[in-house]
């Protein structure tokens, strides 16, 4: 089949890889001048099944409400006039029960564990390098109360296949010497040895090149998707800034813009952008930095070791499609990084960035056919898109081919 994949981030590029490998004639349409120039450019770098707990939960609802009047939180909400935000928030509210949280978390974890295998298989098959570090991820807590709560949450993940170890501060520092200087301010941690880290931009750039050079995929950069072309009950192509493109099938993998395109065509696709901030800096003294990825769960700051670079990420800000940033947005992130890894880096040397995560109300991506014949979705991966992208690409390719997916599709296949 002739297939158009809309979006050349990690999700769209992974889908293009698997579809091309199946023998389809694949063209990827991307508005940026190169692959991985949107959300995939600078995420936290964590390939983290351990981070599969759904955002929508009773605890998240309390934090969401508190953020309306407390500015110094990891979650920030700017109330505006966007009616779609209120519609999304209403649907988010109905996902914030313990029952829905468990259902959504199990689906995310199932895809995340599968996707981790897919990432590693692609790397082995193609020889792609991306500063991978497979030493696990340390999820640590600053109070005994938050540690006990976190241990219960991670216990649910352990019941569904995640290998974890709940550790005290001494064992934490033994596993992660980089946290030794900060151990006095940390109560304990959950260590997930199955998790890993890597640079998603390096991975996507190399995978796009491989798909183009080895599998025959084509990439159209600097090309904006304007609308779907629908004839009767079928999608037959896409209107773009470069003209009409005809196809037998179209895959929407446009990250936060997916919802905009879906709504224009009567598709119930509640993807909303949630802004995050990252900083990447070459360490002055790598010996004082982390040896693995980590998450400060109480301050909502994540980090990865990418070669001799340190990548830090924080904040979930509901501010529409605003991608701007200012120095104060990184203040708490840098303070936390310097407290954890004193002497490792100079914030003045960091490359700072902000981007938008494509969030579904239940935190679970949507994959598969939608409304029109020939139309497929692969979007809504939220803050763990790097973790779940390759698994969702393989899952999508199986659905397109009519094959039985390798994993249980419950909760993952789009129902509009």
Automatic annotation (TrEMBL):
Residues 2-399 form the FAD dependent oxidoreductase domain. It comes from the Bacteria. FAD binds at residues 3-17. The keyword Flavoprotein applies. One of its GO terms (molecular function) is oxidoreductase activity. Its cofactor is FAD. It catalyses: a D-alpha-amino acid + A + H2O = a 2-oxocarboxylate + AH2 + NH4(+). Keywords: FAD, Flavoprotein, Oxidoreductase. Its EC number is 1.4.99.-. It is an enzyme of class 1 (oxidoreductase). Belongs to the DadA oxidoreductase family. Oxidative deamination of D-amino acids. This is D-amino acid dehydrogenase.
């Amino acid at each position: 089949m002739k297939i158009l994949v809309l979006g050349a981030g990690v999700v769209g590029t992974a889908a293009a890889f698997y579809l091309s490998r199946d023998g389809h004639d694949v063209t990827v349409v991307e508005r940026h001048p190169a692959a991985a120039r949107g959300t995939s450019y600078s995420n936290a770098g964590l390939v983290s099944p351990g981070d599969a707990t759904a955002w929508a939960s009773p605890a998240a609802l309390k934090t969401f409400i508190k953020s309306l009047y407390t500015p110094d939180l990891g979650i920030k909400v700017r109330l505006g006039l966007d009616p779609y935000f209120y519609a999304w928030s209403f649907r988010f509210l109905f996902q914030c029960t313990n029952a829905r949280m468990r259902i959504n978390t199990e689906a995310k974890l199932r895809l995340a564990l599968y996707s981790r295998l897919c990432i590693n298989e692609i790397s082995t098959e193609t020889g792609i390098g991306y500063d991978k570090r497979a030493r696990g991820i340390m999820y640590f807590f600053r109070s005994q109360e938050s540690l006990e709560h976190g241990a219960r949450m991670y216990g649910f993940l352990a019941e569904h296949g995640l290998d974890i170890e709940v550790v005290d501060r001494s064992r934490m520092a033994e596993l992660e010497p980089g946290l030794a200087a900060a151990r006095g301010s940390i109560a304990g941690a959950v260590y997930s040895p199955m998790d890993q880290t890597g640079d998603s931009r390096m991975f996507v750039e190399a995978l796009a090149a491989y798909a183009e050079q080895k599998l025959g995929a084509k990439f159209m950069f600097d090309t904006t998707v304007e609308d779907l072309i629908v004839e009767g009950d079928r999608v037959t192509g896409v209107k773009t800034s470069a003209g009409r493109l005809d196809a037998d099938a179209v895959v929407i993998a446009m990250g936060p813009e997916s919802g905009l395109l879906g709504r224009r065509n009567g598709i119930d696709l509640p993807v909303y952008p949630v802004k995050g901030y990252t900083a990447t800096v070459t360490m002055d003294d790598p010996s004082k930095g982390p040896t693995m990825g980590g998450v400060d769960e109480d301050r909502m700051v994540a980090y990865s070791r990418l070669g001799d670079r340190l990548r830090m990420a924080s904040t979930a800000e509901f501010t529409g499609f605003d991608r701007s940033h200012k120095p104060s947005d990184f203040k708490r992130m840098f303070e936390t990084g310097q407290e954890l890894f004193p002497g490792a880096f100079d914030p003045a040397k960091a490359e700072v960035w902000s981007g938008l995560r494509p969030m579904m109300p239940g935190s679970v991506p949507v994959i598969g056919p939608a409304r029109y014949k020939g139309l497929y979705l692969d979007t809504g991966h939220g803050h763990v898109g790097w973790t779940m992208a390759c698994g969702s690409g393989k899952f999508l390719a199986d659905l397109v081919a009519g094959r039985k997916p390798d994993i249980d599709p419950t909760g993952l296949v789009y129902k509009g």
